[in-house]
Every structure is written in structure tokens, then in C-alpha cells.
Design brief:
This protein is an alpha+beta fold. It is built from 15 helices and eight strands. It is elongated, with a radius of gyration of 34 Å.
Length: about 500
């Protein structure tokens, strides 16, 4: 994917409700950059007046003329003016950083909650066929990459370029020939850098994400198969796979870091050479070194700001490119979300508002056929009757489809054909919600990182009726004494 296409897609995807904040952020960046340029220009005028006592009683700046009585008063006035500008710039930059982090936080919450809602509302059949590490990264990892490296990176690129152009234009106005040579050499070096290094860094970033995914997957597999790993003594096998990916990830990270910081060191060398060339050229042509001090001071203070910005610019461009794999990974998720609903900040699937179904007597299933994804075999239920308040048992060998049959009855899976009746009423399993008719004990344990009440009710709603029901069941299970020994009782974690 080209950068241009990525930028257009990022702009299209940006939520409408955060556009005002983005405009404010850009405005604050412009103000901050303007203060910085004003400070740099003021420093040049300060040096100019400091070495020329003839200008002591008159200060001309930005079209305004101020008169002073002495040389010392002129320098004092300029010093205070520069100090006020620097203080204003520092406070403005701090404010921009805080505003920027707040916007990142809100965008992270928006995109992550949006994708989380998408997955949690997907049909059971779709979710079970998606790798857990992919869902994990798509909900949390990739949106963060897209925001910090995509949106914020793009803003940083634009603001850095604009600021650099204004500073360079100011220096060009003062010393045209010298700065023109410097700009030409700099642009040539940057072009060569991106021509030879850009594709390599993109490849390294793609490989970095690949191995990062493998690390997460390995950890998940280790936790899921912990018993098997211990029983079959396969600890070294999993450790070997894990550390191979860790080593490759760290090595790639080192290479990316070095190449991202290389332009700054190279530009510093160019800048130092230009300064000494300028001093040599001017002095050999009879210029007084004292007269060169204002411009050399301007170059020094400009370099102290521009060189780090060049490094930030190259890093931001590479970050923008490295966000492409993350964007591609979640692009299909956003295609599943209707644009109008996305812009309103809400995502509700139609299956969440289906008509409810009551159950009083029996469930009848006939000639039901279910086809597994990517498998040729099918589950066929010729006839099944489940009567209310009676115990039923489904018997079959491993892989016969017992769990699938239960999932079909509960509405977690939808059949391709067949009839499904509740109390002799024909049910459309794709359009009618009847999952709330069932209680369910899963095969695998499902424990939340929350309170006892939250684990029992799967809710944060708390009232006396619910608590009484919880205590009633704890008493039956002979856990009442144990829970009472805890400080927070049913609100304890553990």
C-alpha cells in the first residue's frame, strides 16, 4: 500500500466527532511553531544589536520601531522580550503534548471499543474460526499503532515540514547562497536515504509485527496447553520457539532504531561542514569575524531545533509506513462497520434487537443440517425433542457432533436447512433471539478478573435480590463460611 492511499484512507476513517479536536491540535501546533520561529528571529536581532552600538537607541522588529536611551537598555529590552517568547513557547508545547495525549487516549478508546463491539456481536461460528491472537491485536494492538504512528505521525510530519520551511526561509532571507547550498545537499542526502533505506525499513517493520504476533501466540498457546507441556516435558520446545522470536524481534528493533537515527548524525556532519565553509569563505574574502556572529548564532540556534526535527521527521515517515500492516489487519473490520453508525460512535447489530421468544413446553428439531466451515462432513439431526423440566442426554463418540448439536439448540450456530420449533411455533434462528431461554455450563472454565459477584452474575449490577440469590447458592455449596471470612465478602477479588 502506498503512503498516499494510506493517508486518504486514514482521513476517510477519522471519526467525525473528533474533527474539531484535530483542528484545534493543528492550530495549537501552528501557534507553538510561530512562537519558536519568533524566538529564533529575536535571537538573531539580539546578536545584531549586541555587536553594533550605532543601533542602540532604535529597535525595528516585525514592522514596529522602538526607541531606547542607551545600549544597555536596548539589550535588556531584547533579553526580556526573548525570555517571554521562550517561556510562552515552553508552556505552549507542554499544552500541545497534553492535548495530543488526550486526543490519542480518546481515539484509542473509540477505535478499540468499536472493534471490540464488532467482535463481541459477531456470530459464534465466525469468532471460533478466528485466531485469538489476531482478535487481541485487532482490538488493542493495531488500533494503537494506527493512531500513534498513523494519525499522530501524519500530523507530526506536516507540522515539522511547515516549521522547517519557515525557519529555512528566514535564514535564506538573511544569507541566501550559503543556505541554498546547505538545503540542496540536505535534500539530496534525504532523497538518497529514502531511496535506499525506505523499502528495507518497511520490510523490517513487517517482519517485526510478524514475530511480535508469534510471541503473543506462543504465550497464549503456552497458557492453554500448560498441562500438556508439563506432562510431555515439552518446556524446552516452547522456550526455544519463544526465544527465537524474541531475539529476531529485538534484532529487527535495533536495526530500525539505528537507521531511523542515522539521518540526524549525517545532517549534523553536513551542518558543521557548512558552518566552517561559511567562516572560511567569508574571512578569506575580507569579512570581519565579529560581523559573522549574528548569522552564526542564528545557524546554531536553528540547528539545535532543526536537527532533532529532521530525525523526528524521518522517524515519523517510517512510523507511518510501519503502520500499514496494522491498518491492513483491521481494515476488513472497519469495512464490516457501517460508516454512518461508525461516525455516530455507536455500533449495534440487528441481532441484538431481535424479538424475544418464550419457552413453556418443548423444543422440536427436524431434518436439521449443519455444515462445518472448510470441512466436507455435515451434522444431520433427523429429529430431536427437548421437553422442559426433564433431563436429556446426548450420547456419541468423540467428534460425532454433541457440542455442535447443543450450540445449534442454543442458537449459537445457524443451520443451513431444517425446522426449529419452540412450543410448536416455527422459529427463524437467524432473526429471533432465544439464547436467554437457556442456562449454560461451559466445558472450559470461564473466570473473570473481577469480583465474586461479577463472576457469578456476569454483571456489575448490584441489588439486594441478586445478593440474596448469590448467598443462597453459596450456602448450598457450603462456601458461605469461606466467603464470610473475606474482607469484602462477595465483592472480593480472587
Amino acid at each position: 500500500m502506498q503512503i498516499k492511499i494510506l493517508v486518504l484512507k486514514l482521513i476517510d476513517l477519522y471519526p467525525a466527532k473528533y474533527r474539531k479536536k484535530l483542528i484545534w491540535l493543528i492550530l495549537f501546533l501552528i501557534i507553538s511553531s510561530s512562537l519558536e520561529v519568533l524566538g529564533i528571529s529575536s535571537f538573531y536581532f539580539f546578536l545584531t544589536y549586541a555587536i553594533d552600538e550605532k543601533l542602540s537607541n532604535q529597535i525595528s522588529f516585525l514592522g514596529f520601531t522602538f526607541f531606547t536611551e542607551s545600549y544597555s537598555e536596548t539589550l535588556a529590552f531584547l533579553s526580556i522580550f526573548i525570555l517571554l517568547i521562550i517561556i510562552s513557547r515552553i508552556f505552549m508545547q507542554f499544552f500541545v503534548i497534553c492535548f495530543n495525549f488526550n486526543l490519542v487516549k480518546e481515539l484509542n478508546y473509540y477505535f478499540s471499543s468499536l472493534i471490540y463491539s464488532l467482535y463481541i456481536n459477531k456470530p459464534y461460528k465466525e469468532v471460533v474460526n478466528i485466531e485469538s491472537n489476531k482478535i487481541l491485536l485487532n482490538i488493542w494492538g493495531h488500533p494503537n499503532e494506527m493512531i500513534t504512528k498513523g494519525y499522530i505521525g501524519l500530523i507530526q510530519i506536516v507540522s515539522t515540514i511547515v516549521f522547517s520551511l519557515v525557519v529555512l526561509s528566514t535564514i535564506l532571507f538573511i544569507e541566501f547562497k550559503t543556505m541554498l547550498i546547505f538545503i540542496f545537499i540536505t535534500l539530496m542526502n534525504i532523497s538518497l536515504y529514502f531511496f535506499f533505506v525506505s523499502k528495507r525499513i518497511h520490510t523490517w517493520n513487517t517482519n517485526f509485527i510478524f514475530h511480535h504476533k508469534r510471541i503473543i501466540k506462543n504465550i497464549i498457546e503456552m497458557l492453554k496447553g500448560f498441562k500438556v507441556i508439563k506432562v510431555f516435558s515439552k518446556v524446552n520446545f516452547f522456550k526455544k520457539i519463544f526465544f527465537e522470536d524474541v531475539v529476531k524481534t529485538l534484532e529487527l528493533n535495533k536495526k530500525i532504531y539505528i537507521l531511523n537515527h542515522f539521518p540526524r548524525f549525517f545532517l549534523e556532519l553536513n551542518f558543521v561542514c557548512i558552518i566552517f565553509f561559511y567562516i572560511f569563505y567569508k574571512t578569506i574574502n575580507g569579512s570581519n569575524f565579529i560581523d559573522l556572529i549574528p548569522f552564526l548564532g542564528l545557524l546554531a540556534i536553528s540547528a539545535s531545533r532543526l536537527l532533532p526535527l529532521v530525525n523526528q521527521l524521518t522517524t515519523a515517515i517510517q512510523d507511518l509506513k510501519s503502520s500499514i500492516p496494522s491498518f491492513l489487519s483491521i481494515e476488513s473490520d472497519f469495512e464490516d462497520i457501517d460508516k454512518k453508525i461508525r461516525n455516530s460512535g455507536n455500533y449495534i447489530r440487528k441481532t441484538d434487537i431481535l424479538s424475544a421468544v418464550s419457552f413453556k413446553n418443548k423444543i422440536s428439531i427436524k431434518d436439521l443440517i449443519y455444515n462445518h466451515i472448510n470441512e466436507s462432513n455435515s451434522l444431520v439431526i433427523s429429529e430431536m425433542v427437548i421437553e422442559k423440566s426433564k433431563i436429556h442426554c446426548i450420547i456419541g463418540k468423540s467428534g460425532a457432533g454433541k457440542t455442535t448439536a447443543i450450540n445449534l439448540v442454543m442458537g449459537l450456530l445457524n443451520s443451513e436447512q431444517g425446522t426449529f420449533k419452540i412450543d410448536n411455533k416455527l422459529i427463524n434462528t437467524k432473526k429471533q433471539n432465544f439464547m436467554n431461554l437457556f442456562s449454560y455450563i461451559p466445558q472450559d472454565s470461564f473466570v473473570l478478573n473481577g469480583t465474586l459477584r461479577e463472576n457469578i452474575t456476569l454483571s456489575r449490577e448490584a441489588n439486594k435480590k441478586i445478593d440474596n440469590e448469590i448467598w443462597k447458592n453459596l450456602k448450598i455449596l457450603e462456601l458461605e463460611k469461606f466467603i464470610n471470612s473475606k474482607k469484602k465478602k462477595i465483592r472480593f477479588y480472587g
